[in-house]
Amino acid sequence: MLKLHEFFLTFLYFGKAKKAPGTVGSFASLLFWLGITATFFNHQISLLTQNIFWGIFLTTAFIYGCFASPIYAKQFGEIDHGSIVLDETVGQILALQISFHFISTDYFSQTKLIAAHLFLSFLFFRFLDIKKPLFIGYCDRNFKNGFGVMFDDLISGILAGIISFIFLKLTLTIR
Q1: Which of 13, 17, 74, 150 could potentially form a cystine with 24 if both were Cys, beta carbons 3.0 to 4.6 Å apart?
Q2: What's this model's pTM, rounded to 2 decimal places?
Q3: In whole angstroms, how far apart are CA 89 and each of 42, 57, 170, 172, 175?
């Protein structure tokens, strides 16, 4: 059972990267999101259905991470071990999907928009996840349990999604 937890909590073992496992996990999550979202686009799946899918996926991953991360972390003696990147997966996909919701029209026909969206969502999420400003840092310092492992990244993802959307909207408006 521990191997199964390891597989999911390290997001398909990307969290086992020797250097910067959180960044590697976030980037793998970005590619995962892009692949699934492109598949939805190719099959003409509605944005509402996509949002429902990602909502279920992220809720399930969040709840699972809250309960499974303390079990897996016992072998390391720390609750938020670096190899646990399911929290980064939740935050990164949330950032991407929040901003995508507002810019999805003709998304896959605009290469510059795709590149800017992916870059900004990744950049802002990683910045907020690493620096942990304001409430994010408070959560990270004060919730030393599975919920705390997942929650600070959830908040980082929400903020990164909003900030990415604002930057993209300003850029699209200026053109």
Answers
A1: 17
A2: 0.95
A3: 23, 11, 27, 27, 32
